[in-house]
Q: What sequence folds into this?
């Protein structure tokens, strides 16, 4: 049993929810999201974010717009779709459930 | 003294040492292999390219020439395919059991890396219509695509619908990347063979340019002679 592996598994499911949650608050540029996630130690290497965003986009939970940037080529800003909001709602329900279970048991 | 290369990375221009460039190319080839079976591998890789360019901008400033250590630093931040499979975040479907699936993914990936088998692609460098015939010739090991083309023409003349060509054109993917072109010819994909093909391409261009220049010169000489 490797604790790093278990931690990675926990982060994995959580990361999907937190990504959707961040994007649901405002349209987001991946590099900004990466900065926040790294501060909170939710991702180790940045490259993991791009396939995740791509998958969420392919599953139509997210979409993106190109926006002009002052310092370089246009940037992709992700937004959440209706389907994404529903999906996020379900994840959050499960999350609250898990949280209460952990809290009551550790008391 | 080192050679330098000018590149366009995710829409930003950079000047980079040749050894650093080789390292970067190797990295992107490894990503291409790793993400090869995803839905939009090129989109993912382009996003990573853009991110790498941003990291260079943040760390190196505008005018510096990028060195090997800059590239190493960026790769460390972005992560290699090994990091991705360790992180387990990237692999979506089959990881019910952590240890076991991690190992099998590792070995799958390894067998993919060393597989030199041919794949069928349309050949965009050697095409008349869609590159189907030259792709087939590459795949079947026919030395010249003209025989396959002839076969197709004979098929059409003998009454078989040209629709078959269009269907083949739709179902066979075009070889877009250098790695795919290598796969199409059944050559091993590694950094040296890719460097070789880039060099060939470049020599080809210089030859074309020379030819163009020579024909221009002779035209001018002829004109001068006429005037005399």
A:
């Amino acid at each position: 049993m490797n604790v790093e592996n278990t931690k990675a598994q926990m982060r994995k499911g959580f990361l999907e929810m937190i990504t959707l949650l961040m994007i649901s608050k405002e349209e987001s540029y991946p590099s900004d999201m990466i900065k926040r996630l790294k501060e909170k130690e939710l991702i180790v290497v940045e490259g993991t974010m791009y396939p995740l965003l791509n998958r969420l986009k392919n599953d139509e939970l997210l979409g993106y717009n190109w926006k002009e940037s002052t310092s370089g080529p246009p940037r992709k800003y992700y937004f959440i779709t209706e389907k994404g909001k529903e999906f996020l709602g379900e994840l959050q329900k499960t999350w609250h459930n898990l949280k209460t279970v952990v809290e009551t048991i550790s008391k | 003294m080192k050679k330098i290369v000018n590149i366009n990375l995710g829409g930003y221009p950079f000047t980079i040492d040749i050894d650093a460039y080789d390292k970067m190319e190797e990295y992107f080839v490894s990503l291409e292999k790793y993400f090869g079976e995803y839905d939009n591998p090129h989109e993912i890789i382009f996003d990573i390219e853009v991110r790498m360019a941003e990291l260079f901008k943040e760390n190196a400033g505008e005018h510096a020439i990028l060195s090997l250590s800059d590239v190493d630093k960026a790769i460390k931040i972005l992560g290699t395919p090994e990091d991705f499979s360790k992180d387990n975040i990237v692999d979506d479907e089959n990881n019910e059991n952590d240890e076991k699936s991690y190992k099998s993914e590792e070995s799958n990936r390894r067998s993919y890396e060393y597989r030199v088998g041919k794949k069928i692609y349309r050949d965009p460098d050697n095409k008349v219509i869609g590159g189907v015939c030259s792709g087939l010739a590459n795949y079947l090991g026919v030395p010249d695509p003209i025989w396959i083309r002839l076969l197709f023409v004979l098929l059409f003349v003998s009454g078989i619908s040209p629709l078959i060509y269009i269907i083949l054109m739709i179902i066979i993917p075009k070889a877009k990347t250098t790695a795919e072109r290598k796969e199409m010819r059944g050559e091993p994909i590694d950094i040296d063979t890719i460097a070789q093909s880039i060099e060939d391409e470049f020599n080809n261009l210089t030859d074309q340019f020379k030819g163009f220049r020579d024909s221009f010169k002779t035209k001018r000489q002829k004109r001068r002679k006429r005037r005399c």
Q: What stands out?
A: The first strand of chain A starts at residue 62 and ends at 69. DSSP finds four helices and two strands in chain A. The radius of gyration of chain A is 15 Å. Chain A has one domain: 3-106.
